[in-house]
Amino acid sequence: MAQTYRCPVCGATHKDLPEACRLCGQMMGPDATVGEPHVSTMSVEDKKGLAGIVGVMVLLVVAVVVAAVLLGVVPGTKSIDSVRSKVGLSSTPDGWSRFDYPEGGFSVELPDGNRKTQTTDGTYQASMLIGKDTAMIVSARQVMTADQFAQLVHTSEASSPLKRELTNQGDSYEAKLKSESGKVDKRSETAAYGVPAIYYETRDIGVDKSLGLRSDATFYGREMLFLANGVLYTVEVVSVYKNPEQFDRVLGSLQISGPPGKATGTTAAP
Prior knowledge:
Elements: E1 5-6, E2 13-14, H1 44-70, H2 78-86, E3 96-101, E4 106-111, E5 116-120, E6 123-130, E7 134-142, H3 146-152, H4 161-179, E8 183-192, E9 195-203, E10 220-228, E11 231-239, H5 246-253, E12 255-256, E13 266-268
Antiparallel strand pairs: 1-2, 3-4, 4-12, 5-6, 5-13, 6-7, 7-11, 8-9, 9-10, 10-11
């Protein structure tokens, strides 16, 4: 019968004499005494080094997660999204980012740069310039109460009160353009954000000098007017280039968050 070695503490058997019991760790060498456990050969310094490596790995994982949230790889909370926007990390690869204008009750995508807001006679306006050749302008003005607006949309007929009101607003807008020597090349009825809208293509328009555009060139424009919840929204891009392509991007990115009118004055966006 083959010889076996039995642990004096737990009774576990071993085919060969081990340094320590495979179960309880009791030392089993010729000089071992009962109650003497096996001691790991890993030094205190080794343990500290391993703990340091684990700590560094944990920190790296946390850093990757935070960076992913800020960069928008994974969704974050509204507060994180706000921070991401303020530090410019929400920019798209083409250099555009979302601009929130709470006082105007809307947000919109614009190129990164010096965005400005201005309030004049109840009209809340956000604007952005590309050099001195192109300006993107979004404005909101409360022209009736939400209840009054609800009465206008009570019917969906072609000659509905809402369309008549929008036509009146469009006529006033066109008259203002022409009074400034502008020309309307195209005016068409369309829709935006689920409500009737009026689309314009214009030229020779008089630009607001406060925008900082050049004064030695002819400007072309694309504009859209629509009424939503009693607010008249105007999306406009004017440029020395005909049919400025930025218009579709600005119009398509507009998000309405509420009625305008929380603040007054002129401020520069961060």
